[in-house]
TrEMBL record:
Protein name (database record): Cationic amino acid transporter C-terminal domain-containing protein
GO biological process: one example: L-arginine import across plasma membrane
Main localization category: membrane
Compartments it resides in: Cell membrane
One cellular component term from this protein's GO annotations in UniProt: plasma membrane
Sequence ranges assigned to domain Cationic amino acid transporter C-terminal in this UniProt record: 524-574
Keywords, ordered alphabetically: Amino-acid transport, Cell membrane, Glycoprotein, Membrane, Transmembrane, Transmembrane helix, Transport
Family, as annotated: Belongs to the amino acid-polyamine-organocation (APC) superfamily. Cationic amino acid transporter (CAT) (TC 2.A.3.3) family.
Acidic residues: bias regions: 592-606
Its membrane topology: Multi-pass membrane protein
Organism: Magallana gigas
Top-level taxon of origin: Eukaryota
Cross-referenced InterPro entries: AA/rel_permease1 (IPR002293), Cat_AA_permease (IPR004755), CAT_C (IPR029485)
One Pfam family named in its UniProt record: AA_permease_2
Length: 614
């Protein structure tokens, strides 16, 4: 059992001397990455989400909802940026968790990223098809409904061959090479941004500041859920509820992190492009939401097509056609952004032996993982053609939020290590075996602020602090969700429970803040550690637990399939399992470095660890 558990937590070895070696083509620039991040994040949703949140949830204060959502997304973005600078490898959150947390959690993250990108690709392809169909008076839908109807629960009412064809076309573009895909994305992202700029400028020309201070509207069929008027018609709770919806509007920037082996200067380009893309998306969402709420009373916005309708009301019907062009370009870049990371995650997992080896084959001609790209494209295209994806889209959120959480936790764990994974084998499994493990020494170190550099004891204290903080965050989130009515009603015991758990989290965060961090030279580091990553973990866990039980059941089914693959194939074919056969298990201490030259069998390793403990 001990040997089995060690296999689950073995970590990926990162050799600093070959960290930039790759079979893929390094041809992307910072501009390419920024355009990829903006294109995948700023899809057609910008033409819909801002108006829907303003009308139903936040009113003119939707600009505050986007601000809060952007700040929450930036927390995750900063964590991705640091790892992008440390580990410029393909795989995003999968490889980041592999080098820090261990193989099993890395597989869980990678398996969920595959689900996230497959459903994301399928849903955007379906949206592209529906939008194009609406421009030609729903001719495609009418034809297939009449000739090939499907009346099976959970499936689409008709097979959407157009969505399937779009996905296959994009798959071919991705197969031809990353530079060709990047050019396609840059052009369409540029057009989309020009349309957004047009909307913002024209909107402010027709702005009326009185629309941000409207009185409470008289009740009728249009305004029966319009709130109390003013800038905050639904109160601060409406702003926060809108922020939860707006948070998902910023999902997509993480595709930048999957390009680590295709960027010319990844240590600098990845952090810069992540920050720039999130900032650019925030400006776009902020500008559009401000423009439409200044042009029209928030409660009169159209729910399904707020932008075209609001311009029609002010007599600018030509804007309909310009917005249509922007929406098509936005959907195209969103489709590329959803599809682009999928074969790269599959390639990274296959290269590490956690998925079938043929999926990691790279074409000598195109320098792309052709097998993984074609297989993932066929899978996503089939789902777009056959399934009604409305009920499955929430499953994307679990994969995204879980990845965000693991990356934030990985940053915390890594920064308090004695050595970074770039300086020694990442699966130095006894880095937490200490010479002094007494409870007195442990408690003293928890609030010791005199150390300048990490020790094994401070590393252990930080590790358990972070672990317990994560458990308490889950407990606090559950309390806030299930006791929401009691807390809002001011019931003393519910408030006391929240306060006690919050106080424990604060104490452990303070203790972690006192521990010394390693001083590795990295192009970018998350500021205000451990506060910002802990806040990011809390936001992500809370949003995950707010998802429906049906979503978690579907998630469980997907994970069951993943576990079958991991325990029957990945566990035995992992590349790191070959390294395990040649790694000593001695504690890393200055006086014992000579033991690194010894090679032990698995049984001898256990005896060696026990001897060093004594």
């Amino acid at each position: 059992m001990s040997s089995f558990c060690r296999k689950l937590v073995r970590k990926k070895y990162v050799d600093p001397s070959s960290i930039t070696d790759t079979k893929l083509s390094r041809c992307l620039t910072t501009l390419d990455l920024t355009a990829l991040g903006i294109g995948s994040t700023l899809g057609a949703g910008i033409y819909v989400v801002a108006g829907q949140v303003a009308k139903d949830t936040a009113g003119p204060a939707v600009i505050l909802s986007f601000l809060i959502a952007a700040l929450a997304s930036v927390l995750a973005g900063l964590c991705y940026a640091e790892f992008g600078a440390r580990v410029p490898k393909t795989g995003s959150a999968y490889v980041y968790s592999y080098v820090t947390v261990g193989e099993f959690m890395a597989f869980v993250i990678g398996w969920n990223l595959i689900l996230e990108y497959v459903i994301g690709t399928a849903s955007v392809a379906r949206a592209w098809s529906s939008y194009f169909d609406s421009l030609i008076h729903k001719s495609i839908q009418t034809f297939f409904r009449d000739n090939m109807p499907m009346s099976i629960g959970g499936l689409s009412p008709y097979p959407d061959f157009f969505a399937f064809g779009i996905t296959l076309l994009l798959t071919c573009i991705l197969t031809l090479g990353v530079k060709e895909s990047s050019r396609f994305n840059n052009i369409f992202t540029g057009v989309n941004l020009l349309v957004v700029l047009y909307v913002v400028i024209c909107g402010f020309i027709k702005a009326d500041l009185s629309n941000w201070s409207l009185p409470k509207p008289p009740l009728n069929s249009t305004t029966d859920k319009a709130g109390d008027g003013g800038f905050l018609p639904f109160g601060f709770s409406g702003v926060m509820s809108g922020a939860a919806t707006c948070f998902y509007a910023f999902v997509g920037f993480d595709c930048i992190a999957t390009t680590g082996e295709e960027v010319k200067n990844p240590q600098k380009a990845i952090p810069i492009s992540i920050v720039l893309s999130l900032f650019g998306c925030f400006l776009a969402y902020f500008g559009v939401s401000a423009a439409i709420t200044l042009m029209s009373p928030y409660y009169l916005l159209d729910h399904d097509a707020p932008l075209p309708e609001v311009f029609s009301k002010v007599g600018w019907d030509v804007a309909r056609y310009i917005i249509a062009v922007g929406a098509v370009c936005g959907l195209s870049t969103s489709l590329l952004g959803a599809m682009f990371p999928l074969p790269r995650v599959i390639y990274a997992m296959a290269s590490d032996g956690l998925l079938f080896q043929f999926l990691g084959t790279v074409s000598e001609r195109f320098k792309t993982p052709v097998a993984g790209t074609l297989l993932s494209g066929l899978f996503a295209g089939f789902m777009a053609m056959m399934f009604d994806l409305k009920e499955l889209v929430d499953m994307m959120s679990i994969g995204t939020l879980l990845a965000y959480t693991l990356v934030a936790v990985s940053v915390l764990l890594l920064r308090y290590r004695v050595n970074s994974f770039n300086q020694y084998r990442a699966d130095d499994r006894d880095s937490l075996i200490l010479n002094d493990t007494s409870s007195v020494g442990y408690l003293q170190q928890m609030f010791n602020h005199k150390l300048r550099t990490p020790t094994h004891l401070s590393e252990t204290v930080s590790f358990w602090n972070i672990t317990i903080i994560c458990v308490l965050i889950i407990a606090e989130s559950l309390i806030l969700i299930f006791l929401e009515d009691f807390i809002s009603s001011g019931v003393w015991w519910s408030i006391a429970l929240v306060s006690v758990v919050g106080l424990l989290i604060f104490i452990l965060v303070y203790s972690t803040w006192l521990q010394p961090q390693n001083q590795d030279l990295v192009n970018f580091k998350v500021p205000l550690l451990p506060i910002l990553p802990v806040i990011s973990v809390f936001v992500n866990v809370y949003l995950m637990l707010k998802l429906s039980s049906a979503t978690w059941i579907r998630f469980g089914v997907w994970m069951f399939l993943g576990f079958l693959i991991y325990f029957s194939y990945s566990l035995h074919h992992s590349v790191e399992s070959q390294h395990d056969e040649h790694i000593p298990l001695s504690p890393r201490s200055d006086q014992d470095e000579s033991s690194d030259d010894n090679i032990f069998s698995e049984d001898e390793e256990s005896d060696h660890v026990l001897w060093n403990r004594k």
